[in-house]
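User: Earlier you gave me the apo prediction for this protein. Now I'd like the version with pyridoxal-5'-phosphate bound, so I can compare the two side by side. Same sequence as before, with the ligand SMILES added.
Assistant: Got it. Here's the input I'm using:
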Amino acid sequence: MADRRREPPPHEPGFATICVHGKKHLDKHEVGRPIRAVSTPIFQSSTFAFESVEHGAAVFRGEDPSYVYTRLGNPTQAALETELAFLEQGEAALALASGMAAATTAVLNCCRTGDHIVAGDTLYGGTHQLFTQTLPRLGIAVTEVPAQDPRNFADAITERTKLVYLETPANPTLVLTDIAAVAEIAHRHGALVLVDNTFCTPYLQNPLLLGADVVLHSATKYIGGHGDTVAGILVGRQDWILQARMEILRDLGGCISPFNAWLLLRGLKTLPVRMDRHMENAMEVAQFLAYHPKVAEVIYPGLKTHPQHDLAKRQQRGFGGMISFMVEGGREAGRTVMDNVRLCTLAVSLGDVDTLIEHPASMTHSTYGEDELKKVGIDPGMVRLSVGLENVEDIIADLRQALALI
Ligand SMILES: *Cc1c(COP(=O)(O)O)cnc(C)c1O
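And here is the structure of the complex with pyridoxal-5'-phosphate:
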């Protein structure tokens, strides 16, 4: 049967029709010559045409994999998902509007009212708020435990536990969790293990190979890498990801835009090169801080003084670009440093090309109350540094002049 939609319209189209369809409306189904773009194109299209009613019905029955609508899938998103699934060595991936969209999608894909989650007790502040404020309103209970000892997870798991949620290294304390040990405990009780791998990226750590079931990224951070995009990623088994897409994403709607998916594809091209330099710079900055008389404590998994340095060496292929430190004189002295840096930028977020400095207790982790901060080991004077890609001497010189003001 001839495809009537490819035939010219019955008469010369008018001005408005050309505005809508373009001058080339007659052949808009064919670009006319091979494209072979080297960079994945941005498919900035909300919807995708069906060949016939029967074709559309087959797509909706799940018998034809054609694209339908960008909330459910789009070629630029798909290119990103394929690449991330490969880098994390998972079966499938789902790209979402933000790291928090990934967290809510993952949690709701695992849990319903009456279910229980066990999580580490230092988490990104937004995740902590989700666990302590929003999920309890839906009847999903969360127990947060000190994450350095796997036995704490064993003690907290109940028959209602559906998910064990880890962040390693944790934001901002850089506490590590032994993923393999916790996965073994969780699986014995039939719970899935999710690892927020934002700090390491797939370049430094592959939780799925250590026994985790799902990996989450705030792709806003190192994967995007340039401070210009907010996005999230989930990687896991094919059936789990399909359910997350067709049930939770479809209903909650936290899809990523094709343009943001493209920015992440571009970020991924330089991920290993950037991570190598982030780590190289971070190690030098950590050593500078460790020997500075005004610095009381430096937390960096690459330093031998980090209590879990051996686990970091075993579980990760590098120590990352994040440092936390406390200065002599506590909160006020920390404020002096953060208010007087000139090259480093006082801003939340991390993993950017720029060095970012911030105060967890009053910013990213202000969702923790005073008592909670103390309990989980977030010092009120803690300063968090996301070491960027500037010349390391310049970063160190900036910190030195700011520390001199204490
Ligand atoms: C930033 C962050 C998140 C949240 O991601 P958004 O993209 O800001 O929604 C989750 N986990 C960690 C470890 C983060 O740093």
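For your comparison, keep in mind: Residues 92 and 242 are 8 Å apart (CA to CA).
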